[in-house]
């Protein structure tokens, strides 16, 4: 109990500090943000210390989670009254940390505390929770009875309760019930139009879509999601818009409807990302669409950015971003480095792609075919199998490039044999393939039809051309650009304007400058 | 709905008869009539209401649109083909309870082929993603996929030989169009790859039946090629010596910008 008071006090102190600092303008904006991070970190550390300390006796663990939930409810109330969204965001963050500890008893006690027992919402949510053994319940109801006044719950709190029950159901894998719960909650949300609810609402949308996806009924909710997106746009709810756009894209891409996904994405309003996770997801879906549409450069940029921005904890997401990024790079003709495949935790998942890269690098069609067949299950579950088929062309090109570099003159029959083209008429095939490769600029050679061979051109001395100058220029421009950006981003140290230079310090500084000036003058004289 | 249904079926029979007779004008007239009458049926997309004989109506509508697709190929109207195919598509993807049509795969393959010929490769791949893997085994669709691969790789002779192995006679129209595209591609590649070709070889590669056709083609499309002593010379003498002049203006600009930026460094 003492811990919670200390906890509450520190929150108050930090909040008042934050408030006072908030009044000071401009360059303290960044400082404040760091302060908030610091505040959150201290709170997290305190909470983590709290829970292991009290976990020894079973009967106290449930109330400590319950206490946390009560604190979260208090925070949400304060946030709702003061109309501050960041508190709600913080509340959600704490809830996610508590997710593992949610049990039916705790939830039912919390529902009793927050909602009016007997109200329609309460009875509906209560019905989802299984009834557990009574002694825990009695303990909790005893404590809650002393503290809870019967008050009319805020809409934020109601939505928050729906949210809690929903994640509880999903964690318990009761997906059909989760479906029903989420649909009912979404229906309730339609009437609420408050910014503070938006954050909770966007989480609800996400779990709504997730529960439908886990039961395999994604197509049903597409109409609902579109309607919700419309409403969010009308209400200028940017976080909701972002979340719903991502959910819709996920919906379309689940059913391979790339065309419709692209049409939606190009027409939907775009703005600064509010949430890093949503932005990462958006980049990933964009990358996927671009890959299928053969725009490999854009796709590579999006996918690599998504993989970089993703938080370290999101391992599965980063794995699949990397898988698609590897394939796009192979399709562009560049070979990804070995270190990509050796990243922590991803080695096993990326193994098939590693072997595929190997086959493409060597330029061996047979090896490529064996690898593709061996891992065809993985590829089809990743939905990359059609892309792998497109890679065949790259394998042939790489093989051709190797041959053209190693031989100055080689007959077409040998080329066909080396490329292992399995076709009824290999020489004619090889001839047309080489001709196309020459036209595309992949290899530098000429063909001699009468004698049936390919003659590689000599690569001249590159330093006698303009090439190095151009390469240098791009690098110089980049460095200069970086320098300019750095200069522009310079900031004064935050408290410099506060410190007035004391009279003593000023005298000292002036003295030093005078000495320096005398020194330089003397040096000059000496040199003369 | 029954009298309308029987009326539509009757006109459809007339349409089919005219189609077999190759009387395309009557076909077009009857088709527009049929389309107007189909708008009265409520169970079709986009309304999708559940009427008592919904399945029958949808099957009939699907048949009508399939014939419309075949008709547009016969009259060689690619826009009409695109329109009719888009109208037909919801019947394949969104309607349940209908017997799978025997023409489904040939028509899907036909659409893929059309996209390939019009060089809309991005849409080709997008459509390909929509097909389930079982459909990829179907000969019509497999044919289109292999064609696209050969096209990408540059094995144009495979493309041309595939013309002989068309799985459905309706594809012949597109194969002819494809042949023309392939010919242009081969000409472009040969230009870069060969110094010269004998007339016979050139004729063979570009698939002309006589020397005269070849000469006419060269005069029309590639006037820069020369024909001398029984050989076709592709003009590539221009790129022999690298330019001796230095791009002075560009260098001056670059150096000035370096100087300016360096001055800015405090």
TrEMBL record, chain A:
GO terms for biological process: regulation of protein catabolic process; ubiquitin-dependent protein catabolic process. Keywords: Proteasome. Residues 280-461 form the PCI domain. Residues 496-521 have a biased composition (Basic and acidic residues). GO terms for molecular function: enzyme regulator activity. PROSITE patterns: PCI (PS50250). Residues 492-528 are annotated as: Disordered. The 26S proteasome is composed of a core protease, known as the 20S proteasome, capped at one or both ends by the 19S regulatory complex (RC). The RC is composed of at least 18 different subunits in two subcomplexes, the base and the lid, which form the portions proximal and distal to the 20S proteolytic core, respectively. Belongs to the proteasome subunit S3 family. This is Probable 26S proteasome non-ATPase regulatory subunit 3. It comes from Fraxinus pennsylvanica.
From TrEMBL, chain B:
Residues 79-250 form the PCI domain. It comes from the Eukaryota. GO terms for biological process: proteasome-mediated ubiquitin-dependent protein catabolic process. It holds the Pfam family CSN8_PSD8_EIF3K. Keywords: Proteasome. GO terms for cellular component: cytosol; nucleus; proteasome regulatory particle, lid subcomplex. Transmembrane segments: none annotated. The keyword DNA damage does not apply. InterPro entries: 26S_Psome_Rpn12, CSN8_PSD8_EIF3K, PCI_dom. Belongs to the proteasome subunit S14 family. This is PCI domain-containing protein. It comes from Fraxinus pennsylvanica.
